[in-house]
Every structure is written in C-alpha cells, then in structure tokens.
Amino acid sequence: MVQRISLAHGEGGELTHQLIQNVFIKSFGHPEHAQLDSAIVTCPTQTIAVSTDSYVVKPIFFPGGNIGKLAITGTVNDLAVSGAIPQVITAAFIIEEGFQLNELKKVVESMAAEAEIAKVKIIAGDTKVVEKGSVERLFINTTGIGEIRQEHRINPGAIQKGDCVIVSGTVGDHGIAILSARHEHGLFTDVESDCASLNHLIQELVEKIDGIRIMRDPTRGGLATTLVELCEDFHFTVELDEVSIPLRRDVQGACDILGFDPLYLANEGKVVMIVDSKNAHKVLGMMKGNVLGENATIIGHIASCDEQTGKLLLKTAMGTSRRLHRLAGMLLPRIC
Amino acid sequence: MVNMEVFSDPTIARHLLEAVIQLAERFKEERGRIPVFMEVCGSHTMAFAKSGIKTRLKDHVGLIAGPGCPVCVTDQKSIDAMIQLSEAPNRILCTFGDMMRVPGSKFTLMKAKTEGKDIRVVYSPLDSVKIAEENPDKEVIFLGIGFETTIPILALAIREAERKELNNFTIWMTTKLVEPVLRVLLDSGEVKIDGFLLPGHVSIVIGKQSFNFLAEEYETSGVITGFEPVQLLSSMYKLLELLLEKKIDIINDYTYVVKEQGNLVAQDFLKHYLEPHDEEWRGMSAIPKSGLVLKEKYAQFDAKKKFKVVIEEPRKTKCRCGEIIRGLITPEQCVLFNKGCTPTNPIGPCMVSTEGTCAAHYQYMREE
Questions:
Q1: Those residues with Cβ within 8 angstroms of residue A12's Cβ, 6 or more apart along the chain or in another chain
Q2: B367 touching A (Cβ < 8 Å)
Q3: What is the pTM of this model?
Q4: pLDDT of B44-100, one tens digit each?
Q5: Nearest one of A52, A261, A106 to A175, comparing CA atoms
Q6: ipTM above 0.90, yes or no
Q7: CA distance, residue B70 to nearest chain A CA (Å)
Q8: Which of A140, B255, B327, B344 maximizes the CB count within 10 A of its CB?
Q9: What is the dihedral of CA A57, A59, A63, A64, to 10 degrees?
C-alpha cells in the first residue's frame, strides 16, 4: 500500500511529529535547533544577507534534479551572487493531500544532499498539508542567511567602460529540461537541468581575484532579462557578442522548433559576472577549473557608463547591433 | 545527411552577406534604385530581423514582409469568434501559443484563461485529440488557423478523431492558402516587387511546382528558402543573379526538404477531408477559394457547424495590420507602433504573433 500524506499530517499532532522526526530531521539533522519554536543561530559577522524564494516547479522531478534540490541551490545561489557565504537555510513545505510519502522522502533527501554539498545547515522548517487541488503536489519555500565579509564585498560602483561580462556556462539548459520533462509540445531531449550550488565556485573567485564588480544568477527571464535589469539599475550599457554566448546544440534545436529565444530561458546553475577586464582571464581560468564553470566564456563588455538609462545591446553575427528588452509576457510555442 | 550547423555559421553568413551587397549594388547601378524582395513567410520575417540581416541590408535590399503570418492574416471577426468560443461552459479550447495574446474586440484568450476558462496551448493538434479522448464529458475545440504547413496536421487530427470515434472533438477552421493571396497582391499592383523569397515550410507540402505560376503568369522570379542566415542569404544571392541576368525562374534553394511535387501524402489528406472555401483576410476582405474547410461529410468535426457564436461588428482601432500584411507600410509608419501598441498591450495581432511583422520590428529592430 502506497503511503500518502493526509490532512492529519498537518494537524500538529502525533502524525505531524512522526513526519518531522522520520522525514525532515532524519534527513536534515540538527535536532538541537528543533527544540524551541525558533532556531537560535550565532551571527559570525555584523552584516548578513537574507534571501527567500518559493519553488513551485512542475514537474517536481525533472532530469538533473527535483524541487528539493532546486529549493536549496536557488536560495544558496541568490546569497552567493550577493557576495554572501550561505550559512543556514529554513524550509517550509506546502503539501497537497494525497502526496506520496516516498516522494516526499526523495525530495527531502535531495535537499539534505544538496545542503551537504553547499555546506549550509537546514535549521528550521514548517509543514502544511492542504486539501487536494489547493496546491499542485508540493510547494517549497526556503529562506537563507549568508555571512558578508567586509573584505570581499562586491563593488558595482566601480563598473567602468571596457569591463567584461562573463557567463559561467551554457544558457537555457534548465528551461529546456523542464519543458522536455513536461512532455508537452512533443519535445524530447537529453538536456538536464543545470541546477547546482555555485557558492564554492563564487567564494573562491571573490576571495582570490579582485575586480569582480557584480554578479547575478540568470534564473527566470534568462540571461537577457537579468542583464537588462543590471543595465537599468546601474545605468550602464552592455554589448553582448551573440556568437560567443555558449549554447548547447540541443537547446538551440529545441528553441528553433518551439520559437523560443534561449537568452530568455531560465538557468539554475549559472552566474553572470561583470569583471574588470584586467582580471577577466583570471576569472575565466578559475571558472574553467571547476566543473560548474567549464564552459565559462566572456560574452560581452561594458560599452558605456553613467547613462541615464542603461541598455543591453546584442551584436549579431551579421555585425549589426540590436537592443534586447525584458521578456514580454510569457514564452509561448509558435505555430510553424 | 545535411550538416545543419553550416547554415548558421557566422563566417559563411558574413561572406555571403558581402556577396549579396555586391550584387545589390550592381542592380542599383543598373536600375537607379535598390531591389525590393518580398519574404512571404512570417518565420522568414522573424529570421531576417533577428539575425540582423534586415538591418544590415537596409540600404542595399528592400525587404517587404508578406501575408505569411497565419494569425495576422486572420480577420478580426474570426478572431473574435474564436475567443468567444471560450465563454460557454464545459469546453476545453486548444490552441497554438500564438493565439493566446491576440487581442479580440473584447478580450484575449490569456485573459479568459486567467478567469478560469480551460484553454490549453498545444504544439500539435494531435495533442488536442488526446485531450478530447481523456475528457469525454467536455467539448474540445481546436482553433485551426494556419497555412499549408499546418493544414495537413489539422486533417490528420480529424482522421485520429474519426478513428477513435470521438464525438466531442471539433476544429474551428480558418485556414489560408498562399497562392490565392499572392495572386491578389500581384493583381492589385499595390506593391512593386522584384522577386519573392518563397516559404520553405509551405513548399515542403505543396512542392516547388506550385510556385511556377509566379514566373509563368506574372513574370516574377522566386527562390524557395530555409530559415537560417546562410540559407536566406544564399537565396537572396540567387534571386539577385536572376535579376541581373534578366532571367525569370523559380529556384528551389531548399532542395533537401522541398520536392518538385511536394508531400503527396499530405496533399492526399487535404483532398480527402477538406475542400476550397472563400476566406476573409484581414485588410483584404474575402478572397475566393483562399482557404480550406471540412467537407460536409465530416461536418461532425466542424466547430463552426456545431457551435453558434454571435459576434458583433469588431471594435474599430487605428491598427494598420491590414496594410502591413499587404506590404504597403512598415510597422514604424503605424501611429500605434511602440506607443499604444506593444507586446504587453497589443492592439493588433501583428504585434503578438511569433511571426508578426510588428513583433519582429519591436523585438529585433528597435534601436532606442
């Protein structure tokens, strides 16, 4: 008989206790934090970074990961690209009544495994069970706290003309992996999600190399939307070189068939950085030395600074330049 | 095997681009003006804009987008009718993604979906047959827009529904054929065109021979082409060569997929299930026998016969899609472009379809 989550698992009684003990604490450890209503942590520094994100990916299991792994990597990466060293994470689960217990265990075990890789502790959590149809299977929220070390603070104020834009690898993998996993639109590929914790790679770069101005992880909206936001927020113009942007052939192929632009597809294990051109090759070399950055590439540069409205330009293979904008609405597959 | 990567190789494309410019300059010297080509297919319009070819060639070759975007050429009444289909209960509306954001006189399918209507984006009409099978207590309606590229798949969906004896699956057919509209354009003499870049995907179905009428009756050349930069530029080069040598011909420059006779199996499907019909085109009114509809024998699968939709006269706007699809004006000449009409707040279908000329210009050709 398949064991399933029932509404009683969320009632706060014996079943809730069993669920917490047998599933969450069993995987996440740190029972010492489960004794009070809050987890008590000591701040290693005066300045901390806090980030929160909710994960509602569909399907919850996909090639290269699942919603649990993503809930860790996503929050870890948000902290890491802010220049923080991720320390602790909380996890809140909203579970649809009838969800299989063994699937929940699988998700939780992936979270524990990814937390181990990222060296973050999962120290607090919450579980709610809602009636069938109120959510789709399982939603997770994670909140992370990271330590900011003054000596390694990133410095967007120093951005200047000629700085390089570096992406740590191929773009659009996660977006296509999810689309293929849905088996919608008749799309079948071998593309796996790139979801991965980037904090060790980023920490090594920040500690060893000067001149990293700013970093972002190009998740929803893709590389283009992320860079458009940076350009507008910090008033500079970036010129990307279309030909140099790393792209898997199968991702390109899937995009051609569906009419999608890979620059607008989500990534979950990539970082885009703006780096002083003097140190760009050092950054590139160090990235390439890590499996998570082996396809790292310089994809563009800062064309000008101190503009009222920054913009993102794409230099095409034809030598023309066009402006890239935020993703307008949703990506929808085309007719022919 | 065809090595597809060659077709998007930037080095080859750049060399070809220079070669095209050289021929275009020779044309300009001889005739005192630049050559003007029409790309019939909406995907070509997109590819020209996205790759940067159109911008790069703007002083050398005029490229006019033709009536080849299936959503854009659909008249407003048909669009309103399709959107209105979503209003009745107990229905699942299946559509290609392009239709979701197309503005109706009252609302869009996207808005209807947000309000809880069951509207599903599918990649293939066959997916909607499956949905009908899985939901026997609901009426599943597929919004069947498209040119010859798409129509055989609509026919295939009907065959599947017939085979599965489904009585809850219908298609709202509003299909379009390429030849009749090209004849109307050429007969009208509204636009001066030196040659056509002919649609690769449509040609796979109808064959190269279907375009011979352009050369034989209208003394206009055409080259059937693919969708990658190298293919597009190669075909432009061949078209320019024909013009400079004062030859008139239809060239198949997409030989690895397009045959002289086309896809005979697909054509048989069309003949079996469908028959010609006078279709309304946006900005052009009805064109005789310019579309295909289900034969009377298959009326049970015809949503237009099964469901009654009352539509009012469409809301009048300043949208000039009708002139844009006839190649009379460019998007920038429309007062709404990038002001009242943007992809997030579209007034006409050309701004939201993935093959729309306004969408191509908005997304890929704005410099500001």
A1: none
A2: yes
A3: 0.87
A4: 999 999 999 999 999 999 999 999 999 999 989 899 999 999 989 999 999 998 888
A5: A261
A6: no
A7: 8
A8: A140
A9: 30
